[in-house]
Amino acid sequence: MIEETVPVIETHPLEPFLPGNAVLLMLGSFPPQQKRWSMDFFYPNLQNDMWRIVGLIFFGDKEYFLKPDKKAFDKERIIDFLKQKGIALYDTATSVRRLQDNASDKFLEVVEPTDIRLLLKQLPQCRAVVTTGQKATDTFRQQMHATEPAVGSKSPFEFEDRQLFLYRMPSSSRAYPLKLEKKAEIYRLMFSELGLL
Is 193 exposed, middle or buried (0-12, 13-18, 19+ CB in 10 A)? Predict the structure, then answer.
């Protein structure tokens, strides 16, 4: 008789990054396994293009947030940029099970979703939330009443006495079949609409 092993429950290894001036909250699904990290921060996997997308949009250089040896992202440079622009980061799950040994969203089972209302209460200037991927979008919508926007667009939602927008952006994972430059064009529109560019 073969015993099936139940995947372990992983708890989120990072604290929410919530600068007080944040106008945008970016929510992914959950970090990759730590063996894939190049730094101790969000989007740490060198195979994930989030920081290349942001570098291309704001600095015209997709390698802007890489360290000189190009083997890791520069956490301090990223944090300085996020604080200056007012961008908060976290994920829609605080604990998960990985049903396969990879970072793919489709094999992530959300055990405990993040309390998104609690995050938004700490961000009084926040005007928009962006979800980067389907899993994050689905998990967000289970808590907040927002229509799911098409990829690259937005829909309004209410939180307490505020009206915010939910932006649905393409995943920055290379598994999402769209060129880096094309992803950057879509993200650029969002940053521009929020007055961050």
Answer: middle
